[in-house]
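Quick start: read one record
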Amino acid sequence: MKRFLTTVLGALGVAAAAAGSVDYGYVAPDADVVLWGTAKAEIYNAAIRIDDPSLVGRKVTAVKFMWNHAATAVNCKAFLATELKNVSNVAVGDIAEEKFETPSESDDVVVTLSAPWVVDTPSFYAGYSFRISSLSGNANSYPLVVSPCEDENACFVSTSRTYKRWSTPSNLVPYGLTVSVVVEGEFEADAAGVVSVADVVCSSAEPGSCAVTVANHGLEPLKNIGYTYTVAGKTVSGTYEFGTPVASQMYGTKGTVTFDMPAIEELGEYTGTFTIDKVNGTDNKDIAASGINSVGVAAQEARHAVVMEEFTGTWCQWCTRGLAAMKLLNDDLQDKFIALSYHNGDPMQVTLSFPVNVNGFPGASIDRGTFCDPYYGTTNDTPMGIRSLIDSRLAMAVPANVDVKASYNADQTGIDVEASAYFFKTLQEHPYRLEYVLTADDLTGPADSLGWWQHNAYYRYPATELPGGEQFCKPAEEYIQIPFEDVVVSYSPYAGEPESIPASVEFGKSYEHSYYFDITNIKESVRNGGVPDRSLLQNPDRVYVTALLLDTATGRIVNAAKCRVTGAAGVKNVLTGDRTVETVEYYDLSGRRIKGTPSAGMVIERRRYTDGTQSTAKRVIR
């Protein structure tokens, strides 16, 4: 089952780069490609970001990209720019702009600049712009040619109607544009540069390992490197062999190197330097041969939990795949994974305002990143594709450990929360805040309440359709009763609590913050089929608090911790109350009262209680 339509084109080949001229881009010339578009007549702007100091002083002579020759467009131009900026919905190339005609037979477009540009900045954008004036044919609906690519610089898009701001649309992750630039200059046969060296947090007893991203800056494939790493007066060196050589078809193609850190006995903050000394056995002359990272040797070992915020509803027939994914991830990753399930349109709904922009159901985001599918992730149909997004976040260093504990207060009307953040860096100014989320497990509803029955589309499919979610496939039912887990029932502001962390923090110190949840009004949504005055904290022993560490500069969650709320004894009566049902009346869907016992089907049930309250909800009589 495809979640968005793609059309696969054949792999397109180009001539190998000659000495003195290279192509710089993110998609290999022999990669499989697909078509993407908004299915609207509008202006398209597409660009990649190039960030490589080794290009400074060399000349960009052309912009290249693959084109769907069946598409017809007007007002076409290629551009180079220092920033992504539009005027009247059209990208502006403040470095260079060149018009071009759309090819009718070829899939390769090469737009030669009228005057070569001598690169004077390590970071710039390259792309093209055009207008689709009518949707005559499928090609005009999907005019962009893209290919699977995980580089964050590989795809930026804006359009005049659908995506008015430059961004990477969620259904274009992880795809990259087939844009590249032709660069002229003198190039070594064997050269490599350091793109980034991952920060490391470790203990003196467990120094751990470090990952380095390198770029092939030579004309030959990158088979191995010789390296040196120095930190805290200690040096390690070695040779790293790439299992698969880093290709040279595109200048700047990236690979990853890992090495073991040296042991550092004294606690503190350090700066490490990684240098590529040799490439394929020859001396490395690259301008970007070295890179630095921060190393924290701390009393605490770093603990990292990744958060998946899921968006679901019992009415959503495809949302069972999100339930399957969360069960698999909870079982496999345990305390490295936290699920927060926001419900919509059912008795468990507590808000219509979500922490991210929700484009549909089912949906999810990992650490408040790109909106994606809770099972497939950013892939089209890869089972548990969400896992690769989680693993990539787990591989990142955290700025601080997070701890949290929570308990019911003395009068059983609230929850007291105590959280702390132990920092691995000294920061005079920082963007971090704490946010709190209250969740409940084991939520169920009356068997005759339609809102508590999960609609399930997978009952029609064999178990092979949803690996890991076989319980939802044949011979399952279309509507199923299940206990709901990780349900968000209350939360603090999504932007985090102001001053929850001091303005400046020191390495190796812990900072504490308190929060309070009022639980007296955490009720089922009556509008969505819930029972009036029925608490969503159905089992006080299965209530949890998650503390999120937010980076307010990026909006991302950078770490989190979860705890069970303690002190549940005596809470049940306070939450559920002591009322009982006094009378029950049934009505058909036209509002006519039904005498006696209603027959099977959907009816409207009105209950009156001993405390004077009443409830009205749709029920299924079986």
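Helices lie at 138-141, 320-333, 386-394, 571-576.
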